[in-house]
Design a protein that fits this description.
mainly alpha, about 220 residues, 10 helices
Length: about 220
C-alpha cells in the first residue's frame, strides 16, 4: 500500500502536472522535464523525485484526458439519430484536440502512452462503426464512407484549426460543415479511391515527419 504524499510533496506534484498541462497543450509532447520543472518553479531534482521520467508524467496527466474521446464516441453512438451522433463526435473530438497539442499527438502517432491510446482506440472504432452502419441504413450517409475516413477527417479539421488559430480560432467549424454536407446522401458522386484500412492508416501516421508539427497529431 503506497503512503500518501506529504502536503509539500503533493503541492509540487500538482504544480508539475499543471505546468506540463500548459506546456504540452501549447507546444506538444516534445517539451522536456527540465522545462516543465522551470515552468512549475521547482528544481529538476524535485521533478524526478515526483516522476521517474516524462513518460510517467504523461501517463499521470493524460489518464483522464485520454478517456474523454472514447467516452465522447460512446455518448455520440447512443444518439437515436446516427448522423447527428456522428457529427457530434467529429466536432467534439476536433474541439478537444484543437485546444491541446499534446492530446492530438497522443492520438496521431506519438509513441508516448501507446498502450492507453490503443485501449482508447479499441473503444472508439466500434462506436464509430455503429454510427456509420446506422446512418447508412437510415439513408443519411454515403454508402462508401469507412471508419478510417472519420479519423482522417478529424486530422484534416485539426490541421485547419492549427493553421488558422491566430486568424480565427473558430473558422474550422466552417469546414466541418462543408465536410458534413459532403458525407450526406442523396446522390453522392463516386469516390475515386476506397477508404484506407486500419493498417494503412497506421502506416500513414507512422510516416509523418518527426520534425514537422503534425496537424491533428503533433
Amino acid at each position: 500500500m503506497s503512503r500518501p504524499l506529504r502536503a509539500d510533496a503533493e503541492r509540487n506534484r500538482r504544480r508539475l502536472l499543471d505546468a506540463a498541462a500548459a506546456l504540452f497543450a501549447r507546444k506538444g509532447l516534445g517539451v522536456g522535464l527540465d522545462e516543465i520543472a522551470r515552468q512549475a518553479g521547482v528544481g529538476v531534482g524535485t521533478a524526478y523525485r515526483r516522476f521517474a521520467g516524462k513518460e510517467e508524467l504523461i501517463e499521470a496527466l493524460f489518464e483522464d484526458r485520454l478517456e474523454q474521446i472514447p467516452a465522447l464516441a460512446e455518448r455520440s453512438a447512443a444518439d437515436p439519430d446516427a448522423f447527428a451522433g456522428l457529427a457530434a463526435f467529429i466536432e467534439g473530438a476536433v474541439e478537444l484536440q484543437s485546444t491541446d497539442q499534446g492530446l492530438k499527438e497522443l492520438f496521431f502517432g506519438s509513441p508516448h502512452a501507446a498502450a492507453r491510446v490503443g485501449e482508447a482506440r479499441e473503444r472508439i472504432f466500434p462506436a464509430v462503426e455503429d454510427m456509420l452502419a446506422r446512418a447508412k441504413a437510415a439513408g443519411q450517409l454515403r454508402p462508401d464512407v469507412g471508419e478510417t475516413d472519420v479519423g482522417l477527417i478529424q486530422f484534416m479539421l485539426t490541421a485547419i484549426a492549427d493553421i488558422t488559430a491566430d486568424a480565427d480560432p473558430a473558422v474550422w467549424r466552417r469546414y466541418l460543415r462543408l465536410v458534413l454536407d459532403g458525407l450526406r446522401t442523396p446522390e453522392p458522386g463516386e469516390m475515386p479511391a476506397p477508404a484506407l484500412s486500419r493498417e494503412a492508416l497506421d502506416v500513414v501516421v507512422r510516416a509523418l515527419p518527426r520534425g514537422v508539427k503534425r496537424p491533428g497529431g503533433g
